[in-house]
Amino acid sequence: MAGSRLFTIAQKEFFDHVKSRKFLLIFGILLVVAIVGMIGGIAEYNKSLDQYNRHQSATSSDIQGYMAEKPSILGVFSSVATYLVFVGGVLGIAMGFDLVSKEKESKSLKILLSHPVYRDEVINGKALGGIIALGCALGVVLFIALATLLVYGIVPDGNELVLMAVFGGVSFLLIFSYFAIALFMSTAMDESGSALIYTIIIFIVLSVLVPTLANDTVMETIVGSQPELPQELIDQMQAPVNSTGSEGVFMVRNSAGSSDAWKQFNGRMQAYWEKRQTVHDTLALFSPTMNYETITSSVTYKTASSAMAVGPGSGKVVSASFSIAEKQETCVENILGKILANIVALLLFPVVFFGLAYVRFMRLDVR
Amino acid sequence: MIQLEHLSKEYNGIRAVNDITAGIPGGEIFGLLGPNGSGKSTTILMLVGLIEPSAGRCLVNGLDVARDPIAVKQQIGYMPEDVGFYPTLSAMENLTYFGRLYGMDTRTCAKRTSELLSLVGLEGVIKEVSGYSKGMRQRLGLAKALLNDPSVIILDEPTANLDPQGVADYRRIIRGVAHEGKTVVVSSHILEEISKVSTSIGILSGGKLVAQGSWQDLAGNLSARSASHVTIHVETQDPIPEFSHQDLISIDYERDRHGAVITARSDLRDAVATHLAQNGVRLRELSREGLSLEETFLSYYQVAG
User: What's the pTM?
Assistant: First the structure.
């Protein structure tokens, strides 16, 4: 009977969500940006694949860099993730901010609680209905993303399917995090307007303010400035072997890499980036958005595909995405191991805020 | 049946309900009377299980509301004063949802919902509740309160927004369910409404139950109380001079002082006539009237206050 009541409430909430205009509108936007992102990502993937094929056919053995690794299909999802991080957050907020406050405003909460239902069934049912609606929305988006891949003749292998599932899972956790925050504010506030405003403030803090602390200027204050490339190494550099964009990208040759100066520089650089990564990872734990970006970057191999780049003639390292990893870690277990802390942190957000919403709702004054 | 045993409720140190003990048998329509802020709604919320008492307990058909809320709510039908529904659902959809929360199967729920909507005059209304007038919501609230065929029906200000036809329908329905042996509690600050439907009443003032009994018992007390309060109307050709007396409760002069309404503990007509004659005031009219029902109940509240 208790399960039946919970299911009844969850079912009503689910249909309320999927029939609401705001849900349909944001879901529509989410679909559009996902498809646009996929198409852009596929174009990028095909370009990288051509580049990879050209590298494979080249016999020059003294070129080092990461482009030797075959591009992953998961790279296609990196642009989807860029859009999803914002639109998904908005969707989560839109679905949660008035779940309880609307009932307070319409006075239906008093009527609802006068029925033979426990309060925990009401709040759990509301959350469950929202979760199912979010899951369905995201499921449709991922299904369409997969279908788009297949339409373009790109067939993922088993590992890639697992990583796509991870991508879907963390995307769900991101949206659910903001849904849980909005649900909490909805129980804490008497009016939906106030709940929305406070949720947006939290959204801005977590998705804009906290990531701002990880930018170059703030990072330099915390971990110091980045080591400069010694003149000796610049002199050893050869002519560019490849160029992209107007500034050009220069690859360091093996001859430079074998020198002591290079080893020392590499050590300093590695220590610098490790320190910076630690600060970044610590900050990321406090922001679902940063967590999500860290996880999706790992899943879509974004960081591993970068190479050290220097500006022409300046002798300064200009790439902001220097990779600590010497080799790309394509193994699913390795990737999951790297992002486990972020996944746990991302999971903590909805758990904590749903817990707060639960406690607040159980103590709610329904006079 | 309902039993309230030393029921109290405090909000931030203020007693909204103070040690109420009462019993309401089955088949009774119990009118809970009291001015705004007297503790009617708080008492009802405790009875329905929406708030917990600070002390004492409520029993519905022998079940403690605080200890066994689900079983109690299964037997209660409740309509709050500010009745609210899901605005994007129709009346039928709202009632179906609530019916499912009572554990009713789809067929029973559909049948019961149709019957009740017909009973309250909302059959065939398919629009969303957001388009309902306050009166229509009130009617729907009554249908909702009867949805689970409850043995105890609790209605808070049930006629606040109803038109005369709606009020008549409501009275007919309430008398009908009481006739079936169900207990009905009707809370209101409108004395006339309570007097028309209830078979017994309780008067709340300042969180205390200051009077309780059958309509006849209380009416007897009211007559006795009416006899001890006298209202005198005075009209004169000349301005009325200041009047004072030990039995005087209040005196309201008209602006030009050619008239006054005197409320007193005894019949002061002789004293008033003497006072006017001594001051050379020509009298036009000096009459006495009994306290109205409202004034009599006000006196209950004043005594309690």
Answer: 0.77
